[in-house]
Specification:
Elements lengths: L10 H17 L20 H23 L2 H20 L12 H24 L9
Length: 137
Amino acid sequence: SKSVDFLGNTGPYQLYTYARCKSILGKAGLSEEDVKWDASVMELLGTPEERAVLAALMAFPASLHLGGETYDTSKVCAAVYAVTKSFSAMYNDKEKHPIINCEDQAIKSARLQLCVAVARAIRTGMNLLGIDVIERM
């Protein structure tokens, strides 16, 4: 059934992406708290896929605010989906966007920061919708 599909704009797809982010951090031997924000490395993220993730993350708070103002939870769903979709597009191109195996430590750090930001955005959106996230799938 479409409601349990792992592709597209579904709850399981969002949860899977959250679990993927947590898994990436785990494979790096890190927790969310271990990854410190360093805005200076964000400018190293220059591919269209990386920029799409950043754009979705930057639009996220305004989308949540609009959803709250208008009592329209679909705005929250759309914001979570935009973050999830953009991150998945970047992640799935492993040759162009390695994270754990990235040789450039600054870019690796930036991509790990993206993982944390994406995980936090998904968790925030899902919590607002009354859905608990799961660490593993």
